[in-house]
Amino acid sequence: MLTLMDDERELPDDLLALFSAVLAAMRMNRENREKDAQGIFSLVDGWLDTKAASHSFDNRQKMGLCRAFIDAGLEPPDGIRFSSDVAGDDADIATMDMPDIADLMRDLIPDNVTGYPAYMVLREALGAMPRPAAAHFVNEMIAQGISKLVSVGRYFLLDPVGGMRTAAAQGFADLAQAGGVDAGVLSDLIQLRKWIPDPETKTILDRGIKEALRREPSGGSAPRSWTLHRLVSSLPDGTGSQSILASVSCGSKKCIAALLLKTGHGIKDAYAIPCSSASDQRRTLAEIEGSMPMHVVPVNYLSEALAAALAEGLAADVPPAPGFLDVAEMLGLRDISPSDIASATAANIADPDPQLADLSPAKRGKLIGRSISWVRDHEISSSWFVSDAELSSALEEVRTERQATQVVWAHLESQRGFWSSLFSRSAAILRHDGGDAWLVFAAVAHALDTGRALKKIPIFEMIVALTLDVAEQDSQGLGPEGVSSLDDPETDDDVGPDIAPESKGELERLLRKTPLSPDLIDGYLTAVIVAPRFVTPTEWLPPLLGGIEFPGDNKVQRVLDIIMLRYGDIQIVVFDGDIGSGLRKRAAHQFKDWLAGFALASTIAAAWPKRALSKDDQKILKLIKEGRADDHIQNTLKPLLPGWLAAMAARAVDG
């Protein structure tokens, strides 16, 4: 790139595309508060400023670089715009001789390009202009009252740059003053003002709306009526990004309307994918659905989700993506308004009926226990980890794995609101899938909002483990692997395979020639789960598997997979309140192994601290340790253990 720029040759399109992709990745890292994300931007800005100061860029290169920034969703720096040093103040700009805008627009935008694509063409063309000049151009373009330019001007009311939104509002106010706002445009302005975050822009636009209303305009085009055929949504990924797709048609016109919602950003992206035919539409949607798990949702879900996303964006002073103007019409939601944030609690989103409130604490606890199954039921869960700069900096200060684990738990504690929102949104999507899977998400969101300890919510074990894995990969220069939402490559779209169910006798075969047995492992896992103090797999796996060799390739990983499957199954039994009933059915040698496993896990001091045990608890633990070699004690323990295990499990769940 440096050589091409120094030679003042036009930048090749593929090089600009690569540069734009890098900028987009940098932008998303910054949005996600990744470590060093802003620092990398500073390096790029510094390099561009140095090159601009030495006049190393010709006008074609400036235009190309500015286009790359805009394609990446970024505003081009002043240093690579045209003649930014001679732009002058606003008064100078207002008296500039403007080119014939209608002629210029005919040169820039083909006759058959309208709507959002026309806006994007113009936005790229304006990207290299000094900011005041670009804003003045938008103002004048709208005020001239040419139908196509007025139509394109509506999208600038949702432009990501506040100055452009204000310029567009002033253009419409000037147009209204001249009597140029027809009834169709007025209807659009009344709706668009609901989606604009900045008060100044709204005030200017309101002047134009009032003036247009005073004149009682008529005419203009009415919104087209679209038919919605299929509506699907992904679950939110670890960045809070969620993709929504809809196949829609209007006469012979077929499109796929696409939306990207993101926590903290509202409606992050919105656009339409044109399709040549109904079969092309079905094929395109099927290909996208095949690349990422999607769930069918009804229209009423869509209106609620988008109203909430609009409100979230406005609260962050961010308008919806300009393409939402087209997509809202396609989805029959042209009149949608932001919802009331004050009432948009996790409970309202996840469980609006409500059903969760009617369940006993024990039943809610059982649902929470089932969250560990998300690891195998939802591929998107592989993206549920944290990698922001705050956590990365904290992890750099630790010396041991235990300290790192504690840091991650503490950081997750500070993000309760984010995870509650993520799981609430997931519940709202899954409510329409049938079954009660959604209720598990709702129960976890409720647990987060009501202060339940994170270590008593099983899915957070996986989130901690994933976060630590990603941190270790980053420290070694490797990127995290995860599931991405549509057209937002914040995470890689490679996902790990689901864990295959355990086949009959499989674990026993894998454990041959080792001192372990399936019953020993079951006893060990039971002790871990009912322990007075929660410990993570990184704490309880080493005492179980340390120093044991598993002959054959890939056996260790499969043993680990089955252990985690059994861990989840035992947790479900715990929350069912049926933890000890199966002990009576175990043969003598199986029960001995089970006791040996339980006794081994009870030596983990972090899980079984003496101060957390009553004298009766300590007596039973002593019997368990001694019972491995004493048939009489085994006979005593079989009827005694179920009740004691149930009591320990209840304490663990409520803790």
Termini distance? 59 Å
Rounded average pLDDT: 84
Query: Which stretches of 5+ consecutive residues score pLDDT under 50?
Result: 1-8, 84-91, 478-497
Examine the secondary-structure arrangement and name the CATH architecture of the largest domain. Up-down Bundle
In the CATH hierarchy, what is the class of the largest domain?
A: Mainly Alpha
Number of helices: 30
Sheet with the most strands?
5 strands, antiparallel
CATH topology descriptor of the largest domain: Four Helix Bundle (Hemerythrin (Met), subunit A)
- Tell me, briefly, the overall form: elongated
Tell me the domain tally. 5
Percent helix = 55-70%
Strand content: 5-15%
The number of distinct β-strands equals 5
Order of strands across the main sheet? 4-3-2-1-5
Write the topology of this structure.
Blueprint: H1 2-6, H2 13-31, H3 37-53, H4 59-71, H5 90-94, H6 101-108, H7 115-126, H8 131-143, H9 147-156, H10 162-177, H11 183-192, H12 199-214, E1 227-233, E2 241-250, E3 253-262, E4 266-275, H13 278-291, E5 295-296, H14 299-315, H15 324-330, H16 346-350, H17 361-369, H18 374-377, H19 389-396, H20 401-413, H21 416-430, H22 437-449, H23 459-475, H24 506-510, H25 518-530, H26 537-545, H27 555-576, H28 588-601, H29 615-627, H30 631-654
Antiparallel strand pairs: 1-2, 1-5, 2-3, 3-4
